[in-house]
Specification:
The structure holds two protein chains of two kinds. By secondary structure, chain A is mainly alpha-helical. Chain A is built from five helices and no strands. Chain A has helices at 3-8, 32-35, 64-134, 161-173, 179-198. Chain A starts with a helix and ends with a helix. Chain B is of the alpha+beta class. In chain B, the strands form eight sheets. In chain B, strands 2, 3, 4, 5, 11, 21 and 22 form a seven-stranded mixed β-sheet that branches. A five-stranded antiparallel β-sheet of chain B has the order 13-12-26-25-24, with helices on both faces. In chain B, strands 1, 8, 9 and 10 form a four-stranded antiparallel β-sheet that branches. In chain B, helix 12 crosses helix 14 and helix 12 packs antiparallel against helix 17 (504-517). Chain B is elongated. Chain B starts with 11 loop residues before the first helix and ends with a helix. The chains are: A mainly alpha, B alpha+beta. Chains A and B meet through helix 3 and helix 4 of A and helix 1, strand 3, helix 5, strand 9 and helix 10 of B.
């Protein structure tokens, strides 16, 4: 095999020149065959085995077992990729649900607080209604005429004996209400009401 | 040319192994597919229900029931949130006595009784109940604040477990008892701030049978139940293993729509005046019951409506159910002489008589077609106005005979009798009047003074209201408007004209006659007021049963309005079976006057006269066996004119 043939195999062949660094590419001059006007014989290299009669190489056909193996490997690979994806999405989803549930719990907590406040407000409204109804009926100049839609002036301090009795009975009936607080509420309400009516 | 590499390599053991693996994988796949088919298709419904039972939770969001208010905005019925407290009996099997002691002290319930209830519950479970009971109702209508106090106190309760706790088991038990022993459900309670006042009008509520919330059972609570109830919301969601809702997983959330508020035409101040007067009158006259209604005759708004005895609408079961009835609307009664103003109006309208016409009252006994009519006193010749003021049965029997059954029936029905008034009360009675074709002379003469005619007190008040309103009959109404929970007016009820029953001139003449009743000598003289002219009519009816009219059982009533010429309030008062006297003039007229005076002061009706004597002195003394005094003796009443008219002559003839 001539050097020209070897060189024709490609740039993978480097020349070692003297004591130069063998890992450095040598600067090659123009090769003779590149300048030759005659065509170069590029017949394939045939290994000289046996009697010189070389048999051509044919790839061995794959059996179905190999095909199954390859299929399984490919499937496993795909499954692995899918699992990775699913795990990624799953982790995302779990994080999302956790966050959502956490927000939901906060919402529930707020809802409960709001509910408590609303219920307290409704209870107070009922107590206020009881107190307003216990006011003695108005007579004389402060009374609104029949047909007027404005609220009657309420908040007179004096109460009739029957009114007091009824109030005490109702106070007993409504459990858990602090009597002092009620009185304070009544006072506050009556002042507010007076102002409202006069205004 | 085939080389050694061309031929496939034959390795049987590899094929067998591979075949086995393939078969195994296939078998697994088949099994998985079969299980999937079974789970997803065959048992789909069953498993879905199971899964949903574990994870899904649904909650009804109760709408708040609307308020009922009087015309001035004072709340007379309101809903307040309360709690129903439940105990989990399965948690207290080891420490029953201690739990009963602690919970009993917190809920103010006798521990022995509570322990007995828990024990009975546990015994039921041990006896093989399908599933152990996890909720025992231990308290209802507990205010929210009290429940909060109970929850806080429960956190500090030791339930007889010695402190400090060393055992982990005891620690766990204590935590469970503190956090899971008691739990509460939200409920609503109806509060009636006025107590028994207005009870028959408002009615009462009860727990709804097919769902949470309350349903109106009586009165306005029932009549306006649809409006007051609102619409419950619904929350479909998921829950965690402990049972806490996961709001993030809500699949459906319908917000509840609170009920609308109903504003009545009732004025609570007038209502209280009426109720106090009725209670006093009932106690004084030892009457079975007393009732009254106050109307504004210009609009026919019902300003007050009271019945005595009443009941506590929060605990209706504690009272006799007869007291629930609103007698003004639901009771059919014979009105007695009150009905004479309709006879008078009809006779005047048809020109059969005038107020000044003379009518002979037959000295107290009148027989026509073998039918005898009697007066409570012996009267001779009176003017129609005098006869009306003295409530002569004979005079008005003659007028009814002059009218005839058809015409009289027409006037009765025109005045709104024998038909419902249209007030939204489920139990309002239409009354009953037999068709005129079936009327005999007896029926007609008796109907002239209210016998054989069944009406409600409301109907008579409305009929009198037509006279006060210059002959225009209108529909009475109890509900002024309906407001949304935010205060927006959703519906405003207006006065509704029904028909004109008599001309304004005739109505004015009837008013004159009604004014004469409160004049001295009239049956309603006791009801006369110093600052107002009063137009009224008294009536005392005998009550009947299957055997006829009963002695000593009377229904006494007075209906009138003030001021007579420009009416502002119409008042109807009735006493059922009064014992200390029974004539309406004696027992009811003072009550009428008391109510009228207080209402006039309360609503500041401008006086229409000073402290002058009432116009129309009708002090005609009945003198048995003697000729009646000449009506001209009275300065205000003209002498009776000669009797005219064929029918009238026939009626008054022998």
């Amino acid at each position: 095999m001539t050097l020209a043939r070897l060189l024709s195999l490609g740039g993978g062949i480097t020349m070692c020149q003297g004591r130069a660094n063998p890992f450095r590419k040598a600067e090659l001059g123009p090769l003779p065959f590149l300048m030759s006007t005659k065509p170069v014989d590029f017949a394939p290299v045939r290994p000289m085995l046996g009697d010189g009669a070389a048999t051509p190489h044919r790839p061995r056909p794959k059996g179905w077992a190999s095909k199954i193996e390859i299929g399984v490997v490919k499937t496993l690979g795909a499954l692995f990729l899918l699992a990775v994806l699913v795990c990624g999405f799953g982790a995302q989803h779990i994080a999302y649900r956790r966050e959502k549930n956490s927000l939901g719990r906060q919402l529930r907590q707020r809802e409960l607080e709001l509910r408590t406040v609303v219920q307290a407000c409704q209870s107070l409204e009922a107590e206020k209604a009881v107190l307003v109804a216990q006011m003695p009926p108005q007579t004389g100049v402060n009374l609104a005429k029949v047909g007027a839609t404005q609220r009657p002036a309420v908040g007179t301090v004096a109460q009739s004996a029957s009114g007091r009795e009824r109030k005490s009975a109702l106070l007993k009936a409504s459990i858990g209400v602090n009597a002092i607080r009620r009185t304070q509420l009544a006072d506050a309400r009556s002042h507010a009401h007076r102002g409202g009516v006069r205004g | 040319m085939a080389g050694p590499h061309d031929a496939p390599v034959f390795r049987p053991f590899q094929y067998r192994r591979l075949g086995a693996i393939v078969l195994l994988v296939l078998a697994c796949l088949v099994f998985i597919l079969w299980r999937l088919f079974e789970i997803q298709i065959t048992r789909h419904q069953e498993l879905l229900a199971k899964a949903q039972a574990c994870s899904k939770t649904s909650r009804v969001l109760q709408a708040r029931r609307g308020e009922i208010r009087d015309r001035n905005g004072i709340i007379v019925s309101i809903s307040t949130p309360v709690k129903a407290i439940y105990l989990n009996p399965s948690l207290c099997s080891n420490r029953l006595e201690q739990v009963a002691q602690a919970v009993g002290a917190l809920l103010r319930s006798p521990p022995d009784r509570l322990a007995a209830r828990i024990r009975a519950c546990l015994q039921e479970d041990n006896a093989g109940a399908a599933s152990p009971r996890k909720a025992l109702l231990v308290g209802r209508h507990v205010p929210v604040r009290e429940w909060q106090a109970v929850s806080t106190a429960l956190e500090l309760e030791s339930f007889g477990i010695r402190q400090p706790i060393h055992s982990r088991l005891e620690q766990k038990e204590l935590v469970k008892l503190r956090h899971q022993l008691l739990f509460a459900r939200e409920e609503q309670s109806r509060v009636y701030p006025c107590g028994e006042s207005l009870c028959q009008v408002l009615g009462f509520v009860s727990a709804r049978k097919n769902g949470p919330g309350m349903a109106g059972l009586y009165g306005v609570e029932r009549g306006c139940d649809q409006v007051l109830a609102g619409k419950d919301g619904l929350c479909l969601s998921e829950q965690d293993a402990v049972g806490n809702e996961l709001p993030a997983c809500r699949t459906r959330y319908e917000t509840p729509t609170d009920g609308s508020h109903v504003v009545l035409t009732i004025d609570l101040r007038i209502q209280q005046i009426v109720e106090r007067a009725l209670a006093a009158a009932r106690a004084k006259c030892l009457a079975r019951s007393a009732s009254a209604i106050v109307l504004d005759p210009r609009t026919f708004e019902i300003l007050a409506l009271g019945c005595c005895p009443g009941f506590n609408p929060q605990e209706p079961g504690e009272s006799d159910y007869q007291n629930w009835r609103n007698a003004v609307f639901t009771d059919m009664v014979e009105p007695g002489s009150v009905i004479k103003f309709i006879v008078l109006a009809g006779a005047l309208e048809l020109g059969l008589t005038t107020l000044d016409s003379g009518i002979y009252c037959e000295q107290g006994r009148f027989v026509v077609n073998n039918v005898s009519v009697r007066d409570h006193a012996r009267y001779g010749l009176l003017t129609v106005q005098q006869a009306f003021a003295k409530s002569s049965n004979i005079a008005f029997s003659k007028l009814a005979l002059a009218l005839g059954p058809q015409q009289y029936y027409r006037y009765l029905t025109n005045f709104g009798l024998a038909q419902r008034t249209g007030v939204p009360f489920a139990a309002e009675t239409p009354g009953r009047i037999a068709p005129p074709q079936s009327w005999s002379t007896m029926t007609l003469t008796r109907a002239a003074f209210g016998q054989g005619v069944s009406v409600s007190q409301l109907q008579m008040a409305v009929a009198m209201g037509a006279i006060a309103n210059d002959g225009r009959l209108m529909q009475p109404y109890l509900i002024s408007r309906i407001e949304s929970p935010r205060g927006q007016v959703l519906r405003q009820f207006q006065p509704q004209f029904v028909r004109s029953v008599v001309s304004p001139q005739i109505a004015r003449q009837v008013k004159e006659a009604l004014k004469a009743v409160s004049a001295p000598g009239g049956t309603g003289a006791v009801a006369a007021m110093e600052q107002y002219t009063v137009a009224l009519k008294t009536g005392t009816a005998q009550k009947s049963d299957a055997h006829g009219y009963r002695d000593g059982h009377h229904y006494s009533t007075v209906i009138g309005f003030i001021p007579a010429d420009a009416p502002r309030v119409l008042i109807s008062v009735a006493l059922d079976e009064p014992q200390n006297g029974y004539y309406a003039a004696e027992v009811v007229a003072p009550v009428f006057r008391s109510i009228a005076e207080q209402i006039a002061a309360c609503v500041q009706i401008p006086p229409d006269r000073g402290a002058r004597p009432a116009s129309g002195d009708l002090s005609v003394k009945p003198a048995p066996g003697t000729a009646p005094p000449h009506p001209s003796a009275s300065p205000h009443v003209p002498a009776p004119a000669p009797v005219t008219g064929h029918a009238f002559a026939r009626a008054s003839g022998p």
